[in-house]
């Protein structure tokens, strides 16, 4: 099941917020953040939701994120202590009750994000994070803002808080995986993507992103091909860019050239 998303998959994961605790987009569900590496795919992401306890995949054919999940570890994005993709996910507590005032403030912040008023959105989200640290969606959206601004370290910190608050948000884990990869923490990135996939097997974005990680950074072509195939199976409309990547990988005889590192992950 998927709830509203804070950050639409494209670049705006903001329509998924049913409540503030576990949103997956910076808009409604703080979860629709993908880590797509295809240069043809824009890097923008919409806001995530507040209380969405369900995992969502912004990059998959299914709805991406849910609202701000409760203080459970945000499913999509997880903080630094990710156990590993195959670790069992502990049921998260019910989302905390969010006051009408807090919800309105969160909605306003997401609207600012969608309108491109990043500074206003950041100020509002920081204020909410100070008064409601248990809301994963708030942290996830802050992390998204920082990541898209090139501020990788603070992005990782916020996304780790998001997954800690909303451990069942696949979208948050996917975003965290992207941030870890940008920071050069490939093992943690792998674990975050695997956690997102374990939470939502139909979420295409982390499959693609994990494939890219194995292909370009871990140099595990066999595993990358498996993941690319799984991603394509979840893409009814197809993806010509990834099909080309598969052909290139099958014919590659040496480590990938550095030029390929310019690929973008999928939110």
Features:
267 residues; mainly alpha; two-stranded antiparallel sheet; 46% helix
Fold topology:
Layout: E1 22-23, E2 67-68, H1 100-114, H2 118-131, H3 136-148, H4 152-165, H5 170-182, H6 186-199, H7 204-217, H8 221-233, H9 240-251
Antiparallel strand pairs: 1-2
Q: What does this protein look like?
A:
It is a single chain. A two-stranded antiparallel ribbon has the order 1-2. Mean pLDDT is 72; it is low at 1-44 and 51-93. It has helices at 100-114, 118-131, 136-148, 152-165, 170-182, 186-199, 204-217, 221-233, 240-251; strands at 22-23, 67-68. By secondary structure, it is mostly helical. Helix 3 packs parallel to helix 5 (170-182) and helix 5 (170-182) packs antiparallel against helix 6 (186-199).
Summary of the model, kept short:
The protein has 267 residues and is an all-alpha fold.
Shape: elongated
Low-confidence stretches: 1-44, 51-93
Distance between the termini: 19 Å
Give the strand tally: 2
Main sheet record: 2 strands, antiparallel
């Amino acid at each position: 099941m998927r709830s509203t998303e804070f950050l639409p998959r494209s670049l705006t994961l903001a329509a998924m917020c049913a409540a503030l605790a576990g949103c997956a987009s910076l808009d409604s569900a703080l979860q629709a953040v993908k880590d797509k590496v295809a240069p043809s795919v824009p890097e923008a992401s919409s806001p995530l939701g507040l209380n969405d306890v369900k995992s969502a995949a912004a990059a998959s054919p299914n709805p991406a994120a849910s609202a701000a999940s409760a203080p459970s570890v945000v499913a999509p994005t997880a903080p630094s202590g990710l156990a590993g993709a195959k670790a069992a996910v502990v049921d998260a507590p019910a989302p905390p009750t969010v006051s009408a005032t807090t919800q309105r403030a969160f909605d306003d912040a997401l609207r600012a994000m969608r309108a491109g008023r990043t500074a206003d959105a950041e100020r509002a989200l920081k204020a909410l994070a100070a008064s409601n640290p248990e809301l994963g969606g708030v942290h996830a959206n802050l992390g998204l803002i920082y990541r898209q601004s090139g501020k990788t370290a603070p992005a990782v910190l916020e996304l780790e808080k998001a997954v800690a608050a909303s451990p069942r948000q696949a979208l948050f884990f996917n975003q965290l995986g992207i941030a870890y990869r940008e920071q050069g923490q490939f093992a943690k990135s792998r674990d975050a993507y695997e956690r997102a996939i374990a939470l939502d097997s139909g979420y295409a974005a982390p499959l693609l992103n994990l494939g890219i990680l194995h292909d370009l950074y871990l140099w595990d072509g066999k595993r990358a091909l498996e993941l690319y195939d799984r991603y394509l199976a979840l893409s009814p409309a197809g993806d010509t860019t990834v099909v080309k990547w598969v052909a290139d990988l099958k014919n590659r005889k040496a480590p990938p050239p550095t030029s390929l590192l310019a690929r973008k992950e999928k939110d």
